[in-house]
Amino acid sequence: MRNVCRRNESKKSVTKTSEVDAVGIDKGINQLNLQLAGMKVQKCIELYQFLCFESTEAILFFNPKPDETVEECMERRIALFTEASGSQAEGYKLIVPDGDPNNWYTSSHKAFIHRRAVFMKMAYILALEKMTTIDAKHASGDKDGGSFSFLMCCSQTVEDVYRHLGIPKMAATTLMDWNRIFRVGEAFPHVNQFCALTLI
C-alpha cells in the first residue's frame, strides 16, 4: 500500500514538473516572439519616412536623451561626429566605450572609427535636411514626392563621400547598422570581439 502511494506521489510530482517546464517553455517562446515582432516593427520604422521629428517613430529610431528632442539629439551627434572625425588624434575616444582607457585601439582601429564618424556625420546632416514632413505628392502616391527615409539618406551619403573624399563605397545598410549600434549607448564597440567583450 505504501509503495502504491509513493508511486502515485512520484507520478504527481512528474506531472507538476512537466507542467512547470511547459509553462517555462511557453513563456520563453512568447518572449522570443515578442522580440522578433519588435525587430520587425523596428525594421519597418527604419524604412518609413517620418511625418515629423516629434513622431513616436522618429523618437524610437534616433533614441534621443529624455531631456532633448530628436532634432537636438541629431545636432548634438553631428557635432560629436565632426569632432571625432577631425584632425585630432584622440578624437576617436569620443565615440568608443569609456574613451579607450587602456589604449586598445591600434592605428587601423582608429582609422576605422574615424571613417564611421565621417559617414555618420554626413548621414545625419542629410537626415536633418531631407527627413521632413511628407508632402502632398508623396501622400498621393507619387514616388517623386515626399521626404527621404534614413536608408535613402545613407545611400546618398555613400555616393557623396565617395565623390568628395574618395572613400570606397559600401552598402547603405551598413550605415543603418552603425546607427542601430550607436544610438543605444552613443559608442561604437571595438572591432576586435575579445576587446569589445572586455570593454562591456
Describe the protein in words:
- With 200 residues, the chain is mainly alpha-helical.
- The protein has one domain (48-199).
- The chain is 66% helix and 0% strand.
- The protein is built from eight helices and no strands.
- It has helices spanning 2-47, 56-62, 70-84, 107-130, 136-139, 150-165, 172-185, 193-199.
- α3 packs antiparallel against α4 (107-130), α4 crosses α6 and α6 packs across α7.
- The chain is globular and about 40 Å long.
- The relative contact order is 0.10.
- Mean pLDDT is 74; it is low at 2-7, 11-25, 32-41 and 133-146.
Kindly summarize this structure in a few lines.
Helix content is 66%, strand content 0%. The chain is mainly alpha-helical and 200 residues long.
Features:
200 residues; mainly alpha; 8 helices; disordered N terminus
The profile of the biggest β sheet is:
none
User: What distance separates the N and C termini?
Assistant: 60 Å
Structural shape = globular
Number of E strands: 0
Low-confidence stretches: 2-7, 11-25, 32-41, 133-146
The run of helices and strands is HHHHHHHH
**What fraction of residues sit in β-strands?**
under 5%
Q: What is the residue-mean pLDDT, rounded to a whole number?
A: 74
